[in-house]
Amino acid sequence: MTGNATDTDRYPTLTEAGRRMLAFMREHPCAPQYRNHSGNRLLPHEVALARAAEASVPYAPFLWRPGSEPPWLPAFIAETFARVPYYRAQGTPPGRLADLVTIARADLAHDVTRFVPDDADAARLLNFRTTGTTGHPLQVPSHPLVAARYLAYHKRALRRFGIELRHGAGQVGVILLGFQQRCFTYVSVTPTMGESGLAKLNLHPVDWRDPEHRARYLDAMAPEVISGDPLSFAELLRLPMTWRPRALLSVSMQLLPGLRRELETRFDCPVLDLYSMNEVGPVGVFDAQCGGHVLLQPELYVEILHRDGKPVPLGERGEVTVSGGFNTCLPLLRYRTGDFASLVDGDAAPILRDLSGRAPVRYRRADGSWVNNIDVTHALQALPLTHFTVHQDSAGALTLRLDRHGQQWAAAAEAALRALMGSVPLRVDLLADEDKVVQYTSAIPEAIA
């Protein structure tokens, strides 16, 4: 959301209090360089709808259990077949969900427009670029109200740990952390929380006049919640920040137990490990007492499938496959996430156990410094690559594998990686025709945060 948009476009309901909050975050003496502009884009009636979702979603019951389909599923299938070009091309919807062919990220990456409903408001569509861990970079269609509803599911997760958000007018509610050489950064306000401040900032020193400003700025903002990934949280642990948020939310990548314990000790607050993806939003939150990730979306049906597409016996591991969700711009049926877990019943909601999700990876450059996998994606994103992997061996040599389609850009991809990584040994190879691969891997022990 850049270009010629104004603050009125970005924040249609902005009040004077909201303007003061934006100025406070932008103009603080220790503020970072905010490189981009963004905003909630919510119209007045959408603010009311988002507020209603935040009031109801944390308490909404699950109407299905593992092994039994939800009562809303047949109507969702029929509506999706009627409104979405990809499904409508398949003809009459089948009588059972199990008769539907599964889809995967490769299908969306090939042409995501086929999965957008006919009646989606094209003038207000948003696109979120995903980096992911598979060789399929993707732009996910969304809408301001869909983006706003993330907070409702985050509130559901926080409520599980006894936390009710309180920050409102004149306070900073959430700071989103990145730690990349290049990062999308901005300030915004949350209208459903009294225009409390929201900022996405990059902890990498490149975005700051002085690296010491990072801790000072975070202390001055005093956010109620800090959200990030294991890479940015590992950097946060190195800063002399004194502020104690009420919770940390780890998203996008797998949070290992050791790092979670270190964060809990340092900041004396719950650290929520959210299983989330741009395609469907927050899926589950880890609860040690339940032994897994408790599902967060009552309107998202989860199956666990064999590689052949058939359901595994109840409680066995397989691929997490989802139908439904709250992204009205991308209704999905039997979408294979590429992540693996078992599904068991819980008191209030089903639980994913032994989830194998996205692990953060960083790469060692020729000078011994590190870049993370998102920086690698940024280095290659100008090229129309749809399927690739990057691996670094224990000696530091890199292998970039491209599928047959991407071979025509091999030289350009190699040059882009050399510009990022320096003089490390690098070769480009052919990637076998697989749908799901682990995109970023390394044999260097320090590469995993």
TrEMBL record:
InterPro entries: ANL_N_sf, CapK_Type1_Caps_Biosynth. GO terms for molecular function: ligase activity. Signal peptide: none annotated. Keywords: Ligase. PANTHER family: CAPSULAR POLYSACCHARIDE BIOSYNTHESIS PROTEIN. This is Phenylacetate-CoA ligase. It comes from Pseudoduganella lurida.
